[in-house]
Amino acid sequence: MSGLDLSGKRVVVTGEKGLGGELVRQATEAGAEKVMFSYCSGAVEAQELHEATGATFSRLALGDLESHASFLEAVRAFGPVDLFVANAGMIASGRLKDTSPKQARRILDVNLFGNIALVDDLIVGDYMAKRGRDMAEWSRAGLIGSVAAGGHVGQRHYAASKRGLRGYVESLPDDMDVRRKRVGVCLLEPAFVDTGNPDVTAAINYYREKIIAAGGADGQARWEEFVAKGYVMKAPAAAEEVLRLMTCPEVVGVRAIPEGATMAKVREYLNKAA
Fold first, then answer.
1. pLDDT, tens digit, for every residue of 106-127?
2. How far apart are CA 122 and CA 80, in angstroms?
3. Options 3.60.10.10, 2.60.40.10, 3.40.50.720, 3.30.200.20; which CATH number does 10-194+233-260 get?
4. Which residues contact 79 (CB under 8 A, 6 or more apart)?
5. Domain positions in the chain
6. How many CB atoms lie within 10 A of CB 257?
7. CA dist list (Å): 26 to 31, 35, 62, 240, 247
8. What are the backbone angles phi and psi of residue 40, rounded to the nearest 5°?
């Protein structure tokens, strides 16, 4: 990694696949003292990631309070956490008529309620390292949102879950418990992270086709510009930027990746030719 130094830091990441796995690998490479991650269904992937990095792992099913309690026991044994990245979640695409209320509730339980409950417990339960009074010394908790919180075709419930995280994080900087525990909290919102997940791949392909079509003769160039600006990132590049921002004390509240990215700007590429 380019210059990131996590020496002496204890890092916990939720999620073993895609961006989560890359965060674990890069935190290890950056010299973190200890790294721990969660897995849900990917036991094989978790074991492979452990063997590749030496990071420990524990099962976590977001939205399941018993699973939360078990995971937090493992975090307590791991030791005070300097950097916590709440990356795990689920994504689902489909037409409105094909999505049941049960499926919609599941997405909200995992992405919104599950992550909020986990971060609440980590802060209030003294799982995070408590260091000096200067914000530069505070421990850091980051949630992974999405620019799609601004509205994403075919992913309305996913977008709603990520938008809910904005309200949660924006309410925390002046919260008495957060300040007393000396934890800086941020929500990092990447645009499209190319992890190989079929739903993500479908979304990237949708925008690629639409942008190329909207650009006419310059369509391919406009798509390449879209990628170059960071609206589509490979998992390693996204993980590097997440960890960089996580170590910046001034980054609190909501921050888009790339900075300033919004779905409105994404739509500009769809709605007009070059």
1. 999 999 999 999 999 999 999 9
2. 10
3. 3.40.50.720
4. 10, 34
5. 10-194+233-260
6. 24
7. 9, 10, 23, 7, 13
8. -115, -75
Q: Which residues contact 221 (CB under 8 A, 6 or more apart)?
A: 215, 274
pLDDT score, position 249? 86
Tens digit of pLDDT for each residue in 3-31? 899 999 999 999 999 999 999 999 999 99
Query: What is the rounded (10 degree) CA torsion for 111, 114, 116, 118?
Result: -130
> SS3 for 38?
strand
For 218, which DSSP code?
Answer: G
What pLDDT, in 10s, does the model give residues 124-161? Answer: 999 999 876 777 778 999 999 988 777 666 678 888 89
Q: Which residue has the tokens 């897995």?
A: 39
- Residue tagged 């979640």 (tokens): 89
Say what the pLDDT of residue 131 is.
75
